[in-house]
Specification:
alpha/beta; five-stranded parallel sheet
């Protein structure tokens, strides 16, 4: 199972990806997580991405495509993968199509989690509170100022990706505002 989960920041892509990982036994390939790992490790890619990510911006396509290309070739992705947070632009979607074709791979599904943007800020604030309560560290971009920048970037650059896939007849949508378990059931149905 190779799939893409689309939706704005805070839509629940990460939460649903965790559940899909357990169901299908495939890895979640979150470009955000991969980039944060590179930042933490102090790799050259990580250092380039750090300033952009801390400001809520998007890293270059070249960096992201390179990370994805390497990652989908790893052994744990042989049975499939979930792309979470990628592609973020139509150019990345086109590059992904080219990459997958070159690797003789196809996507099984592209699913967008539809949400009410006004409710997203409350979700982000709640996620930060829960992280702190659990003794974790809040992501640098999980604050109202960075979230607004991320949401604006999503509307401007990423929302057209949905139209790109819809235009090909490949996009499925799920109500991301439903309770978490209901979203999971709707995803299972969309993937079935």
């Amino acid at each position: 199972m190779r799939l893409i989960l689309l939706g704005p920041p805070g839509a629940g892509k990460g939460t649903q990806s965790e559940r899909l990982v357990k169901t299908y036994g495939i890895p979640q390939l979150s470009t955000g997580d991969m980039l944060r790992a590179a930042v933490k490790a102090g790799t050259p890619v990580g250092l380039k991405a750090k300033a952009v990510m801390d400001a809520g911006g998007l890293v270059s396509d070249e960096i992201v495509i390179g990370i994805i290309k390497d990652r989908i070739k790893e052994a744990d992705a042989a049975k499939g993968f979930i792309l979470d947070g990628f592609p973020r632009t139509v150019a990345q979607a086109e590059a992904l199509d080219t990459l997958l074709k070159a690797e003789n791979m196809n996507l099984d599904a592209i699913v967008e989690l539809k949400v009410d943007e006004k409710a997203l800020l409350a979700r982000i604030e709640n996620r930060a509170r829960e992280t702190v309560a659990a003794g974790g560290t809040v992501r640098a971009d999980d604050n109202p100022e960075s979230f607004k920048i991320r949401l604006d970037a999503y509307r401007e650059q990423t929302a057209p990706v949905s139209a790109y896939y819809a235009g090909q007849g490949r996009l499925k949508t799920v109500d991301g505002m439903a309770p978490i378990d209901d979203v999971t059931k709707a995803l299972d149905k969309a993937l079935g």
